């Protein structure tokens, strides 16, 4: 398949899969339960971090978690009392347990006490063109955002910074570190890249949210799960033998040749082709 044929084929698959009916059976349905920006960020983050295993199970576990927070995650993380945390005990999904959950809540409370948006957590301080670039962001999805920018931005630097920042609270549980990956660990960072896709892409199709405006779609790295990896190799978009951070970078670089401004839109095509076993 030559370049033009590949682009036309994948563009048609993006159009097929990048639709609201994709939402219902995907973990992205969890943040779609909310309108307030911070609720979307928190619910989306948990949905992404818990996204391994069968999608139906992931969705059910996320709803269980939200129910324990009275379906008000932002209010819960900011205003909970110690006795409220008892409702989180015994939560478990795969290797994620209540010890991890309680630390996540501590992180969110600490972050949102200082910043209005979670986007700030992904921007290394030395790249920001203001000291607090997120403080004036709107709190709901209907408001318009101030246009801000960073220079020399890379998702690799962003994810490495985020992991360091996430575990900057004293006495964090060491076991929780396995749930937040980074390029320094040579991980594909599939879950975090998926979360960034949800928050950053804004194509008007109603699937991704596009509620962040410092990180741009052109910066994103494609989430590289088993379906995307397999189909990417079949289509010649991945040549690297192992699957690690550099694999995700290689895939994204090749997708940028198809669309430099929005390469990660092809995540829909590759994932859909893999799940439906078309390739």
SSE arrangement:
Elements: H1 3-17, H2 37-49, H3 55-68, H4 73-79, H5 98-114, H6 155-166, H7 190-200, H8 226-234, H9 245-258, H10 266-275
Key terms:
single chain, 279 residues, mainly alpha, 44% helix, globular
Could you characterize the architecture of this molecule?
This protein is an all-alpha fold and 279 residues long. The protein contains ten helices and no strands. The chain has helices spanning 3-17, 37-49, 55-68, 73-79, 98-114, 155-166, 190-200, 226-234, 245-258, 266-275. Helix 8 packs across helix 10 (266-275). The longest helix is centred in the middle third of the chain and has 17 residues, at 98-114. The chain is globular, with a radius of gyration of 18 Å. The two termini are 14 Å apart. Residues 130-138 and 142-147 have low confidence and may be disordered.
**Which class of secondary structure composition applies to the elements?**
mainly alpha
CA radius of gyration is 18 Å
Mean pLDDT: 92
Number of strands: 0
What separation lies between the terminal Cα atoms? 14 Å
Helix/strand order: HHHHHHHHHH
Quickly count the helices: 10
Work out the strand percent: under 5%
Low-confidence stretches: 130-138, 142-147
Sheet bearing the most strands, described?
Answer: none
Helix fraction, binned, reads 40-55%
Oligomeric assembly: single chain
Principal-axes geometry comes out as globular
């Amino acid at each position: 398949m030559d370049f033009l044929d590949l682009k036309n084929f994948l563009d048609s698959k993006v159009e097929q899969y990048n639709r609201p009916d994709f939402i219902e059976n995907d973990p992205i349905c969890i943040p779609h339960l909310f309108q307030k920006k911070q609720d979307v960020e928190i619910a989306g983050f948990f949905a992404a971090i818990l996204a391994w295993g069968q999608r139906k199970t992931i969705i059910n576990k996320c709803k269980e978690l939200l129910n324990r927070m009275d379906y008000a995650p932002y209010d819960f993380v900011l205003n909970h009392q110690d006795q409220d945390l008892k409702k989180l005990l015994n939560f478990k999904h795969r290797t994620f347990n209540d010890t991890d959950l309680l630390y996540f809540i501590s992180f969110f409370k600490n972050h949102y006490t200082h910043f209005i948006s979670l986007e700030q957590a992904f921007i290394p301080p030395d790249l920001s063109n203001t000291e607090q670039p997120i403080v004036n962001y709107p709190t709901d999805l209907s408001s318009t955002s101030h246009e801000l920018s960073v220079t020399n931005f890379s998702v690799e630097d962003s994810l490495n910074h985020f992991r360091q920042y996430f575990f900057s609270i004293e006495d964090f549980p060491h076991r929780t570190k396995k749930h937040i990956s980074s390029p320094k660990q040579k991980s594909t960072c599939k879950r975090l890249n998926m979360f960034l896709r949800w928050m950053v892409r804004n194509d008007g199709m109603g699937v991704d949210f596009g509620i962040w405006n410092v990180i741009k779609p052109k910066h994103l790295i494609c989430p590289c799960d088993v379906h995307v990896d397999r189909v990417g190799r079949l289509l010649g978009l991945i040549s690297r033998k192992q699957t690690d951070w550099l694999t995700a970078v290689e895939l994204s670089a090749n997708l940028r040749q198809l669309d430099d401004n929005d390469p990660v839109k092809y995540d829909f095509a590759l994932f859909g082709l893999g799940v439906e076993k078309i390739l």
